[in-house]
Each structure stands twice: as C-alpha cells, then as structure tokens.
UniProtKB/TrEMBL annotation:
One of its GO terms (molecular function) is histidinol-phosphate transaminase activity. This is Histidinol-phosphate aminotransferase. Belongs to the class-II pyridoxal-phosphate-dependent aminotransferase family. Histidinol-phosphate aminotransferase subfamily. The keyword Amino-acid biosynthesis applies. Homodimer. The modification N6-(pyridoxal phosphate)lysine is found at residue 234.
Amino acid sequence: MSERASLGIDDLPIRDELRGKSPYGAPQLDVPVRLNTNENPYPLPEPLVERIAERVREAARGLNRYPDRDAVELREGLAAYLTRTTGHPVTREMVWAANGSNEVLQQLLQTFAGPGRLAIGFEPSYSMHGLIARGTGTGWISGPRRADFTVDTGAARAAIAEHRPHVVFVTSPNNPTGTAVDADTVTALYDAAQAARPSLVVVDEAYVEFSHRPSLLPLTEGRPNLVISRTMSKAFGAAGLRLGYLAAHPTVVDAVQLVRLPYHLSAVTQATALAALEHTDTLLGYVEQLKTERDRLVAELRATGYEVTDSDANFVQFGLFEDAHAVWRQILDRGVLVRDNGVPGWLRVTAGTPEENDAFLDAVRELKKEQS
Ligand code: PMP
C-alpha cells in the first residue's frame, strides 16, 4: 500500500466534528447534457468576454499592489443593480461582496454564530448552510417544512422559540425544491427570531432573479438584523467568477469587517464582476429565456405524469420515485446528468438550453413508457 493510501484523514489530528465526514460537491461527470448544478447554460456573450479582457488587462497593470480592500467601485455597481431591479434604494454602504455567496454566508456565521452558538434552516434546503455552520463551529438545527415543501410559519416560529438560534436561514427560492417564501412568512420569522434573542435572519436569494415573486430586499428597511444574500453565479451566468454579495443595514457590513480576510477579493475578480455588471441587461435577457424553459419543464413533466414541485428557480424538483437514485442512474445512462440531493423520492433538474431540456424530457418520457 502506498504511504498516502495508508493514511486516512481521520488518522490526522483534525477537529472531532469533521471526523468521518465527506466534502460537499456534486459529481463532475463528463456527460453530453449536464443539468445538475443549477448553472446558467449560456456562455457569456462575446462583447462581455471582450470587456472582461479589457478590464482585466487594466487590473493586471496594478497586480503588484493589493486590490481595493473595500471593493468600493464594485459595491457601488452592485448597489445600483439592486436599486434598479428591486425599486428599493440601496447604497454602497449596505452592500458587501466576497468569493461566492458561500463565502458571504461563512463570514456571516463567523461574525454572528460560531462555537457555542446555533443556526437553523428549514430543510430540505441548501445543505451548505448546515455545512458552513459545522465549518465555523456553529451548532445546526434542522427546522421543519411541510410535505409540499413550503415553510409552515407556525412550526418554524415554534422551532425558533424552542432553540433560540443566533442565525436563521430562509432560502427563497429554496434549493433543491424551488419553493419561494412570501414576505409575511419572513416578517413572522424575523419577529420570532428577535423575540427569542435577538438573532440574525439571512434570506438566501441566490435564485431570486428567476422567481415569479419580487425580491424580499425591501423588508430590510427598519429590520437591522435582516440580511439578503445574492450571487452572480446564477442570473449573471458567472458561476466560475465566484462573486457573491449581501445587502443589509450598513452596520451589519461594518460587523463583517471583523472577520473578513484583508484583500479577500482579488483585483481580477473585482474587474471581471464590474464588466459583467455593465452587461446586466443582456444577461437578464437570458434569465427571461430560462424562466420560460423552467415553466416548460414543469408543464411537460406534469403532462408526462410526474409530480413536480412549483418552481421559482432555474431548476425543477420532480418525482415521486420509490428509488430516486436508481432513476438518477437511468437518466444518466441516457446521457443526461441531473441531481440526487438525497430528498427521498425526488430528483432535481436544472433548466438548460431548449436542446438540453429536450434531451432531458426525451429521457424521462422514455422511462415513463418503459414503466407502464
Ligand atoms: N445559496 C444557494 C441556495 C445555492 O443553491 C448556492 C449554489 N448552489 C449558493 C448559495 C452558493 O452560490 P455561490 O457560492 O456560487 O454564490
């Protein structure tokens, strides 16, 4: 046996809570149609690629220096985007950015949770919330959802009152179910969270640009412990860029400075994100196409006889299967990669290009025929 194979991670003096755990991540398989990680299927348009090259060339001339530690120009641009698309006035002081919204969420937990503190999410939901909690030494509470995957306000309030968490996650639209949360539910959970401690409420809006409903961002007005988390990975089609951001009361942004690493956002990242913001309208045009495709997937899956959860995201949860993993494999055998998130009976497919969606629909129609 090689030296490497004989030494397991658990043989190292790692933290007890990491023992026996596996890293997060969907399989990166080389198949013709990949609809498993909620990416945007459209490559960035060529004029934007050119603009990124220009901006990065400019930034390269200054790479001997550390980047703008406060990412002022970028936060200005993100604030303008939020103001324009939500109608709610957002200033640069209310915005913070990091390497993907995962890093934003990690910084929030480092600031507001950590050892001896608790965070809650209503599951099934984005499993990284629990994993980032674990990585920051935060205790994790798995809160309830109804059988139709909506948040039961009464049960959620009761869980908050019982556990008195320091951070409450609300994901809207939710991953992997696609379910959006209405404003009344968020305000009710916020009130319960303030009565219990007070605690920070984080609304993860990674997919909100695809929603039938407006952003919950205006709810931050008068609610200093409410944070909206966003990303350029989905609507901006820039998952490879790694740019996430939050909007909240300026004092929340000040608080996050206590844990952020200095110069965490490279000059190349800042330049690229600024270029993408210049092309917002084109990118939001792709979002409209994806929304149409998402609605088509919902309708066609239902017409084929599958159960489908209403979706406000760029993906669709479908079932019901006795053995979802076996069906995942059968779809993969037909050249289409979807996601088994471990929700019993259900799988998730990301809305791709019309051609990719057709390939997926052909595969699941074929499966239905074989079963009947
Ligand atoms: N929140 C949710 C709900 C997500 O599904 C994802 C990505 N799968 C993220 C946050 C993280 O996105 P990123 O780090 O790429 O911004």
